[in-house]
Amino acid sequence: MTIRCIVVEDEPLAMDVMVDFISQVPFLKLEKTYTDAIAAMKILNEKKIDLIFLDIHLPKLKGLDFLSTLKNPPMVIITTAYHEFALKSYDYNVLDYLLKPIEFSRFMVAVQKAASQSNKEIIPSEEKGNEGLFFIVNKKKARVAFQSIIYIESQRENVKIVTENNTIQTRIAISEVEKQLPENFIRIHRSYIVSKPKIDFVDAQEIEIRGKRLPIGRSYKSEVHSALGIK
């Protein structure tokens, strides 16, 4: 297993620490370092990156504002000297929040979370006719048919999959689930993916699906309205 990562950090000493820590972990591969988030956007569009080590206070574009621009972000570990942003950062589904000065032992706890999440807890079903996915739930493989899924909700390090018959939770990033879904699913928010055929109502701000009202994220609004034929 190799986790391809980048570091976005504007403090030279902090950058040196992160580069040194990453070099000591065999399964981490440092692709590049950046001193601002805008420069980092290019590699995310050109190359598959699995993990971002991201400072919050950056020039030009702050770390959390940067995350809000990403439709399918990789795993993110926040690195900062400011504890007051911890709670807000988890609204962006970050994997962990490291406070500077960062100790190597604490760094390893965070990257082990990344390694655990990368150990594919989602397996495409090979059955024909009623295709679906297998998710790891309580150390067992639970099969979920695509046609039964109503919506999927990100809950920090887990996702909740709401189906016609039940609800399951599993430890995986919503972006990983999204990659495996067919075209009749659409991401409407950084925390929600819905089944288009099951949508009952939609307006400029929300969709209603099986009696549940879900918000449409600002960065997703144009794509969602286009996909659903809304002007």
Automatic annotation (TrEMBL):
SMART domains: LytTR, REC. It comes from the Bacteria. Keywords: DNA-binding, Phosphoprotein. SUPFAM superfamilies: CheY-like. GO terms for molecular function: DNA binding; phosphorelay response regulator activity. PROSITE patterns: HTH_LYTTR, RESPONSE_REGULATORY. The modification 4-aspartylphosphate is found at residue 55. InterPro entries: CheY-like_superfamily, LytR-like, LytTR_DNA-bd_dom, Sig_transdc_resp-reg_receiver. This is DNA-binding response regulator.
